[in-house]
Amino acid sequence: MRLNGEIYDGEDGDEEEQNLVFGYALILKKKKSFLQPKFERLARNKGILFLAIDLNRPLSDQGPFDIILHKADYRFKIRSFLFSLCREKSGARLLRILALLIMNLDQIVEISISKLGTKQSIHSPPLFLTDYRQKHPEVTVLDPPDAIQHLHNRQSMLQDVVDLNLSDFHGKVCVPRQMVITKDPLSIPDEVTKAGLKLPLVAKPLVVDGSTKSHEPFLAYDQFSLSELEPPLVLQEFVNHGGVLFKIYIIGDAIKVVRRFSLPNVSKRQLAKVSGISPFPRVSSAAASADDADLDPGVAELPPRPLLERLAKELRHRLGLRLFNIDMIREHGTRDIFYVIDINYFPGYGKMPDYQTIFTDFLLSFVQSKYKKRPAN
Q: What is the pLDDT of residue 107?
């Protein structure tokens, strides 16, 4: 069996009967971490065919697919394309137009420019996917582009957690007090004072675009250092949490929780002695795992399962997503007060224990429904 795209055959070169065609459009780094050999073998043995999607070709010319997974680098391509225009052209009006376009990448359908007698174009795959979904409702897209956009902005991503009001269900789920800064960095100290936020503050880029920089938070210890930050950004009050963060992976109905080392508590005495801005450690790294560490039981205890199931179910419904993770902390000195500090679409599942089995089962759950919906040739 051969389809357009990249095909993984049987281990001995013999092709098995395929029950599910899984198309994917992933950046190279994500592909390497997600499509690990163990996962490929397990899925293939269950009748799942992996098919790479070529973003340079119309999606309708590829497949047919049962499921499409996408986390491609179209935003970087468009951003680079726009900045290349900025270098070639000049003028304040053009710069303002480019700035507006960069802030609204998800709304771009196509950008074209005539250069040296040829026409260069760049397209937005999410809008292609929207058109494809309308023409092929039998295909499951993981996840809908319009739902993913909600998590591209840290100002809006946590609002659904606030709206849940989980204050008395095996614990309390909150979000840190936060504010958005879009103005001149020199105005940040005054804005923070007016808002009444308490130091230290966690500073995160406002836009989550998949770049490394968008996932590099900083901790600001004093008022004067705030002016060194680069807007647009979100400032969150730092909550002492015993130096442990819970990463809650969601794959459909499945939930997996792992512990990661985070920043240690900051006492009032330490805050009086420390100044400046410090980068956060990479808690997403598997090397930051705290699952086997000798931790205080009050810090290491996982959030109650009923609370996680309720939170995951509600966010799946409100966000319209099946593949995401929640970063949660427990307020130090408490047992049942938790804070959601971040939500990410299609996180690094390759770092999640036993993700191969969980994700394979998730894909197989689509087999029966997909083949009932697929039109006959």
A: 42
